[in-house]
Amino acid sequence: MKLLRLIFLLILTLPAAIHAQPVTLEKARALYFSMSTEKCNSLKLAELFEKNKPGLPVLKAYNGAASAAAPECVTNPATKISWFRKGKTLLDDAAATDPSNYEIRFLRFATQDKAPGFLGYNDNLEEDKEYLISNLSKGRGIIKDDQVFRMMTGFLLKSKSLNQTEKKIVNDYSSNLN
User: Fold this and answer.
1) Which helix (H) or strand (E) holds 50?
2) Using CA atoms, how far apart are residues 88 and 67, in angstroms rounded to an integer?
3) What per-residue confidence (pLDDT) applies to 15?
4) The pTM is what?
């Protein structure tokens, strides 16, 4: 009888345990960088983080970037604003916690670069841009995944926030990657 109760309890709690898996950095990166082809991956990632609050600053930054991009996938204006504000707060908190983290600074830059001007979220655009360009080798040393780093430099090269000289620096660096 006790065994039967234990099995029943396991059956009831197993689905919750499966869905409560923490979001890994690899999963966050995969969903974030696939947003260019599947824009609602932002909402999917943000909802995953809703179920599993991230502990690491870099994961909080991915949560913030995904939350700030999630309004593209919802229709209610109040919900759009709510998602964006939440994302902005998470990104800024992550950057304040770990200001020398290249990946966090990239996520904040990318979010501010893509944010519509009327939202006024561009306070750190220039400083993050300068940090990213000045620390390309540091960023490459931290981000071991070649594909992720190439997507980051690819974003920088497409950004309208970089001038031609800055794009040349990024292009020259990324061209020399193995």
Assistant:
1) helix 41-51
2) 8
3) 47
4) 0.87
